[in-house]
Amino acid sequence: MYSKNMPTGFAKDFLWGGATAANQIEGAWNEDGKGLTTAEVVKKAATHHDLSMNTVSQESIAEAIADKTDEMYPKRRGIDFYHHYQEDIKLFAEMGFKAFRISIAWARIFPKGDEKEPNAAGLEFYDKVFSECHKYGIEPVVTISHYEMPLNLTLKQNGWASRQTIDNFTHYTETLFQHYKGVVKYWMTFNEINAITGGFTGTGAVDNELNLEQKAQLRFQALHHQFVASALAVQQCHAIDPNAKIGCMLARAQNYPKTPNPKDVRAAQLQDQLNLFYTDVQVRGEYPEYMNRYFQENGVALQMQADDEQIIKNGTVDYLAFSYYMSSITSTDSKPEKFADSFMAGEKNPYLETSDWGWQIDPIGLRISLNEMWDRYRVPLFVVENGLGAEDKLTDDYQVHDSYRIDYLRQHIQQMKEAVKDGVQLMGYLTWGPIDLISASTSEMSKRYGFIYVDQDDAGQGTLKRYKKDSFDWYKKVIASNGEELD
């Protein structure tokens, strides 16, 4: 009789840690030769739910360029990690981090995006950051493009809408792989690549004056350029540093049918396909057949060069990284089978609780996602974002009692452990925002995720001092016990 032991816990080399992005933490937006990025021309939102990140226009960009302050553009200031990186990494090391996910700001390395020679000061900054990580035995997990690119490439060629951007990107990636060979072991090409169908943040292309069908054409064409660029980067990485691993990264949107009605089940299946289509391309190396119908029904006609399909086939990733925050439900009433001007869609689930920002909390959905993706792809999986955004309160004696965050993370770690017992090969777990940072969607500071409180408000006022929250010591205990001690 065949029998194989069931895994009982996380692997000994499990990568515990946290995740950030350059445009949400670094600041120093105009120091040491850095160029302006697409993230730094998006105004902060007026409210928690005002997703102004998708309403960029030529006029708003011109206004942002003329504005030399960070008042309306919080991603220009971040939390000043640029000058606090030693202090912050030391705190991560105190928690016992095995890995720290950061992104490299493309415009720090190539300020305009199309230079031949890199900016030495930019490379040197990340040299120092990676050295500081290695000092404490922390592996850098590096996202090459995280919701930003040099603004000049938008002004010159409308970002990823242009095929020329592939060459700009692969010159940038080759520079990174050569310079950080042996220093960075884990790379990812694009953060949440499915966000590209949401607009400017993913594409770097201005399309606010286009109708829905024209937007679909532009955004999926820009996506194709990113698929080719990512595949070429994978091939570069494998050739330059065979010991490194390079993955893709998806915003996983677990979806359930609203009812057992087969029509709702099919609607949910379509939503799932539209979420996993990106990783189908990057892991399996080809466009899935179901997208042929979707493209035709949405007026999308991709322009490809003769060798694009072969490039994509030859550039499949080593692992699949993803973010997981919530799930949603779909019915034939709520989701038409047409291109949606958003990459997150669906109805609320009455069986789930909701965060302060309206995100539904579904730990079991993480186990479901892990199982579905493992069954589908059979490559190592890596949870590189998961966390709870909340309005934390700093007490008079500089403490933050965030038991709600501990509860959220505990439940998700428990479900990851169940997925590992199910047989899923899981590389690690990086919580989003191990230190408070600027919100990606609204540029708020008040939406806090961290184990470490940063004294800064939405207007940029504060001392920038760092304070440990209750969750700091809890996560330290979790890591020390390799996920066994969760109370």
Strand content: 5-15%
Rounded to the nearest angstrom, the distance between the terminal CA atoms is 39 Å
Query: If classified by CATH, what would the architecture be?
Result: Alpha-Beta Barrel
Total DSSP E strands? 12
Family: Belongs to the glycosyl hydrolase 1 family.
InterPro entries: GH, GH_1_N_CS, Glyco_hydro_1, Glyco_hydro_1_AS
Organism: Bombilactobacillus bombi
Active site: 385 (nucleophile)
Structure notes:
The chain has one domain: Alpha-Beta Barrel (TIM Barrel), CATH 3.20.20. 39% of the residues lie in helices and 14% in strands. It has 15 helices and 12 strands. Helix 14 links the parallel strand 9 (381-385) and strand 10 (426-432). It is of the alpha/beta class and 487 residues long.
Which descriptors apply to this entry?
two-stranded antiparallel ribbon, TIM Barrel, single chain, about 475 residues, eight-stranded parallel β-barrel, GH, alpha/beta, hydrolase, glycosidase, globular, 12 strands, 15 helices, beta-glucosidase activity
In short:
By secondary structure, this protein is of the alpha/beta class. The chain is 39% helix and 14% strand. α3 packs parallel to α5, α7 runs parallel beside α9 and α9 packs across α12.
SSE map:
Elements: E1 15-19, H1 22-25, H2 58-66, H3 81-95, E2 99-103, H4 106-109, H5 120-135, E3 139-145, H6 151-157, H7 164-179, E4 186-190, H8 200-203, H9 212-240, E5 245-257, H10 262-284, H11 290-297, H12 308-314, E6 319-330, E7 353-354, E8 360-361, H13 363-377, E9 381-385, H14 403-422, E10 426-432, E11 452-454, E12 466-468, H15 470-480
Parallel strand pairs: 1-2, 1-10, 2-3, 3-4, 4-5, 5-6, 6-9, 9-10
Antiparallel strand pairs: 7-8, 11-12
Helix pairs in contact: 3-5, 7-9, 9-12, 13-14
